[in-house]
Design goal:
The complex is a heterodimer.
Chain A (H helix, E strand, L loop, with lengths): L1 H12 L10 H6 L4 H30 L20 H23 L1 H7 L2 H4 L4 H12 L5 H29 L11 H16 L11 H29 L1
Helix pairs in contact in A: 1-8, 3-4, 3-7, 3-8, 4-5, 4-7, 7-8
Chain B lengths: L5 H8 L15 H6 L4 H25 L8 H23 L1 H7 L1 H4 L5 H11 L4 H31 L31 H18 L8
Classes of the chains: A mainly alpha, B mainly alpha.
């Protein structure tokens, strides 16, 4: 139950894009076409699936105050938490390099269309943000950290997919010239964020909220399948 | 001005308006939006980014001939991460309350696209002095938007500026509140930051038609 709750919380209530504004740069830059958005979204989900649990282990066994106890009693009062930025970003940069190599080898067309943005996943704030929030919210177990990583990744995926679809359609609308492109995208994202705020009551409400939750599960299934597929594919690749 | 040639001045003034990192280059949006509910936090964030970007640009520019291009991203990340750790520790030491407000967003300066973007686009190809000016200019352009957004959100959202009650006291009904004015609490919520930036872009592009996109 705890797992499901955290999963939905990280997708909807604490949505990376709409609640904390992380990963906005690539969200705005790569959302002109749905197909590229899907590719980048999948890459983000995959990288988060790996980096958040990895960074959880680093945090638990190296960085936290007293985490070095397993090395011996004399290390018990070390506090290395100031190193977390540099260790987290190193993990992420390495994993991104790995994903880049895999994508280049197995899907050159996706590699070409993602272009410069694949190395830029390393500097996608959503991914470092996922690890930093995982640390500051003190997520207790490895399993929960994994669920949190996947959930946040899917939340980001969902957001970029939605805005890409809207931007493809809005091309045919009569937007005031000065708002075209970036301006209108900002305002739409703001309105979507207001919409997502209504999810805030999802997990705190009573019984009547149950029905609503089930509905969102249904909507979510295809996404979850995609992720599973992606995970399976990458397992094969590895 | 003997210190700054015409070209050098352009490096600083260009990113303020016509090549603004946030509204034109679309870099560094994340932190711009999340911490702008208060003017003070916006200013501190802008200064932190300026310190990191100016120093980082100089360091990268000095090392530009010895960094192998294949691993340059990791090298850049290490440089930024080291600088950000210093900024974070300084903030924790001298202004603990504020560093709590900014929470993870100081750490997220590492992944602020402005920094990587300027390293890639400028510092890798130019000398240290020019890179320093470019860093200051771009961070100032970024800070300008942050301060504008922070100003409007704090003024309209809580009726204060930098913590001073400029519009009067909402509880004792002085100043504007005596006329029945109410704070717009919505401005404090995060979606309004996006809409405020959208409006800034609208104003900017209406004034300079060359910046208008196709769709």
């Amino acid at each position: 139950m705890e797992y499901i709750e955290l999963f939905f919380k990280s997708i909807f209530i604490d949505n990376m894009v709409f609640a904390t504004f992380l990963g906005m740069c690539s969200y705005l830059a790569v959302s002109k076409k749905v197909s590229t958005a899907v590719g980048l979204g999948a890459a983000v989900v995959f990288v988060m699936l790996i980096t958040v649990p990895l960074n959880w282990l680093l945090d638990q066994y190296i960085l936290q105050p007293g985490a070095l106890k397993w090395l011996g009693a004399e290390y018990a009062d070390y506090d290395l938490s100031f190193l977390s930025f540099i260790l987290f970003i190193a993990t992420i940069a390495t994993m991104v390099q790995l994903v880049e190599i895999i994508v280049e080898k197995f899907s050159p067309s996706l590699y070409n269309s993602l272009g410069i943005f694949l190395p830029l996943i390393a500097v996608n704030c959503a991914i470092l943000g996922g690890s930093l929030f995982m640390q500051s919210r003190e997520i207790p177990t490895l399993g929960l950290a994994t669920v949190y990583g996947v959930g946040s990744g899917i939340g980001w995926f969902l957001a970029i997919l939605a805005i890409a679809a809207i931007r493809e359609k809005i091309r045919y609308s009569n937007v005031p010239p000065a708002l075209r492109g970036l301006g209108i995208t900002f305002i739409i994202t703001g309105l979507m964020a207001i919409g997502f705020m209504s999810f805030g009551g999802m997990l705190t409400g009573g019984d009547e909220e149950g029905a609503k939750e089930e509905k969102t599960v249904k909507v979510e299934t295809p996404e979850a399948d995609n992720v599973k597929e992606l995970a399976n594919n990458t397992k094969e690749i590895n | 001005m003997a210190l700054l040639s015409k070209k050098d001045t352009k490096l600083i003034t260009d990113p303020l308006l016509d090549n603004n990192p946030i509204t034109i280059q679309v870099l560094g949006i994340c932190s711009a939006l999340a911490i702008t509910a208060q003017l003070k936090a916006s200013i501190v964030m802008a200064l932190s980014v300026m310190a990191v970007l100016a120093i980082g640009n100089v360091v990268i520019s000095l090392m530009r001939n010895i960094i192998p291009s294949k691993i340059r991203i990791i090298v850049q990340l290490v440089v930024v991460a080291a600088l950000v750790i210093i900024v974070d520790q300084v903030l924790k030491a001298f202004s603990y309350e504020l560093s709590k407000t900014l929470s993870v967003f100081v750490g997220l300066i590492i992944t602020n696209c402005i920094i990587m973007g300027r390293f890639e686009a400028f510092a890798l190809a130019n000398g240290p002095w020019k890179s320093f000016l470019d860093g200051i200019g771009n961070a100032a352009g970024y800070g300008l938007i942050l301060v504008i957004v922070g100003f409007f959100r704090e003024l309209l959202g809580s009726g204060t500026l930098l913590g001073f009650k400029v519009l009067g006291d909402p509880i004792e009904k002085t100043g504007l509140y005596a006329l029945g004015y109410e704070n717009n609490g919505f401005m404090l919520l995060s979606p309004m930051a996006l809409i405020v930036v959208g409006i800034i872009i609208w104003v900017q592009r209406s004034r300079n038609e060359a910046l208008i996109e196709d769709h």
